[in-house]
Amino acid sequence: MQTKQGNIHLEIQTSRKSPVGIIRNTFWDKTKKSPRHTQLGRITGCTVDQLMMLQLAFREKVVPVGSPKATSVLSSRELGASRAAIAMAKKLGLHRILLSRSEPWVDAVLAMIAGRIVYQGSKLSLCNIWRDSCLWELCGIDGEPKVESHCYQPLDRLLQRQKAIQIKLAAKHASAGTLVLYDITSTYFEGEYKDSELVKYGYNRDGKKGHEQVVVGLITNAQGCPIGSEVFAGNTKDCTTVMGKIEEIRNEYGLDHFVFVGDRGMITQQRFEDIRALGNISTIGALTHGQLKELIQRDLIQPELFDETNIVEIIDPDSADLRYCLCLNPITKITESKTRQRLLELTEENLKLIADYKKSVTVEKLGARVGRILQKYKMGKFIIWSIEAGPESPSSRKHRLAWSLDQDKIKREEELDGCYVIRTDVEDSRMNTLAVVESYKALGNVERAFRNIKTVQLEMRPVYHKTDERIRAHVFLCTLAYYVQWHMMQKLKPLFEADGSGAEHRWTFAGVINRLKQICEHEINMGGVTYRQATLPDEEQQEILRLLET
Question: Distances from the Cα of 491 to the Cαs of 96, 448, 537, 544, in angstroms?
Answer without folding.
Answer: 21, 17, 19, 9
